[in-house]
Structure formats: structure tokens, C-alpha cells
Amino acid sequence: MKSLLIFGTGGHGRIVAETATGSGNFRVKGFADDDPKKHGLVIDDLTVFNDWRNLDVEEWIVAIGKNEVRKRVFEELVASGKKLGSVISMQAFVSIRASVGEGTVVLPGAVIQAGARIGNNVIINSGAVVDHDAIVHDHAHVGPNSTVASFGIVSSCEVVSAGTCRRSDLSGTMEPPPP
Fold first, then answer.
1. Quick check: pTM over 0.85?
2. Of 165, 134, 146, the residue nearest 107 (C-alpha)
């Protein structure tokens, strides 16, 4: 079991901590946050560390809901040599023929079908469906109970709002979009 530190102490961070713990792949060491007022707090039995940059942790995950902020923190962690883990709920279905990038979170009830490509640092929220051959680019967020249809494309940092459907950008062709 790998040790994991979660960057972000809000609602999304709490959900990621719970999902990571339930996955059986991680031992969550605690939270990290840049807000000095949060340092030393205990949230859901996990400590918010103040000197987190020097902690001995095997993997990191950025659990911040705002895409641009999540992207910035992700890039800072990668630049500083931190290893980014992916948290995938045991209650999600991810096809063995799909790819999921590093630092991505897949929450309970999500479905990722064959040929789907999920980038780095993406949130696939509860109940979301990414259908076959769809592409979700880095730092995007596919909201709760939303769908990215077959061959659909979600741009970097884009949000697919809760309960909506991103239709295919292709007009009738069955060829997948270029990588």
C-alpha cells in the first residue's frame, strides 16, 4: 500500500481521501494546503501539514475542484519531482482498453469505456460516463452524472457540467479523432 498526500482540504479533497482509502491502494497520510490558517487542523481524522514539501510520501494527488488552480498545483508538484498518483474508486468501471493519466481521480459510479483516453489531473466525478473512444484532455472535469458521448472531446481545463451530455464532435464518421 502506497502512502498518499492529498493537496486540497475542501469538499473535493475529503471525497478523494475517502475514495483513496477505500481503494485499498493507498494509506492516506494527510492533507496539504497553502492556507496557513488550515495548518495543523484535523479534517476527517487526517492532519493538514504545514511543512508538506519535505514529507516522506510516495505519491501525491491534487484534489482541488477549480481546474486552473488544480492545473497550477499539479504542474508545481511535477516540476518539484513529486510522483502523482491516480485515485480510482473500486465502485467505478474502467475498461482495460481505456487509458487514465497520472493524477486523475475517478469517483464511485463512474464508467470509462473501451478506447477512452483520460488525460492527466482530470476529475471523472460520481456517476459520470466517458463512452468509447472519447477523449478528456488534461486538467478537465467531467461533472457528476454527466456523459461524454462516443468520440466526444473535452478540452484541457474544460468543465462538463453536472447532468449534461457532451456529444460527439464528429459528424457521422466512425473514425476516432487524432491523438
1. yes
2. 146
